[in-house]
Amino acid sequence: MKYGHYSDYDLRTHEQWPFRCPSWTPMPDGKKNVVILGCSHTWGVGLEPHETWVHDVSKHNTERLRYWNLGQPGAGADSVVRILYSCQKVINPNIILVCWPEISRRERMENIPLDWDGKHLPTNVLGSDKRLRYETNQTDFNNFYKNLFFLEKFAENHGCKTFHTFADTVIDIKQWNKSLNVIEDYTLRNCWPYWDKFTARKLNTQPSKARDGKHYGEENHKRFAQIVLERFSAKLK
Predict the structure, then answer these.
(1) pLDDT per position as a tens digit, 24-34
(2) Domain CATH for 172
(3) At what angle do helices 137-158 and 77-86 cross, to 10 degrees?
(4) CB neighbours of 71 closer than 8 A, spacing ≥ 6?
(5) Is 0.70 surpassed by the pTM of this model?
(6) Residue 63 within a domain
(7) Which of 69, 70, 101, 150 is the most exposed place for a label (fewest CB within 10 A)?
(8) How far apart are CA 188 and CA 236, in angstroms?
């Protein structure tokens, strides 16, 4: 099925930033597919693939699970959900792990030509863009809840487990469903620096930055992956 930019079988509509995952053509058999969704923090801008939180999480239970990093730089909740639906008949996910971006972002459904191959894709609009001047805190939250609904409805219809994390700011989503798997106290942003009384035995005070000087660094990613596995590993199977 395909209508405009929405599809249930065509991830090529998202190749403005190639995904950091293996090729799905042909799709290998024999394992459950874990789709990991998010923005540049999930893709790993400024970091090598092996330095990202997704890489560390993807080493868990590989006898049963196969991981697909479908994070896309600039993505907001709109893009996260569109990517999820686009992978339905390509990857057929069994588990959805999402690191939600900032909720002020929107996906603008214009036909933006890409110079490098002539494709026309939507554009991700970030919170500082003047085209968002009429958006408010209320519309930001309601747009996010819309996308949360569509993600959970996808999971319900296809029998997927869902796991929710946040890149920058935690949103209270358990107010709608207390059974959701959510990390509510840590984000990728606030998980470093931290005090590790068991291993480091020292106060880590220096921020960690990626090579671009803007995104979170390898220490954030390693600590975040550790938290994700501490909270979710028993259910990631």
Answers:
(1) 888 888 899 99
(2) 3.40.50
(3) 20
(4) 19, 20, 36, 37, 38, 39, 40, 41, 42, 43, 44, 54, 99
(5) yes
(6) yes
(7) 150
(8) 19
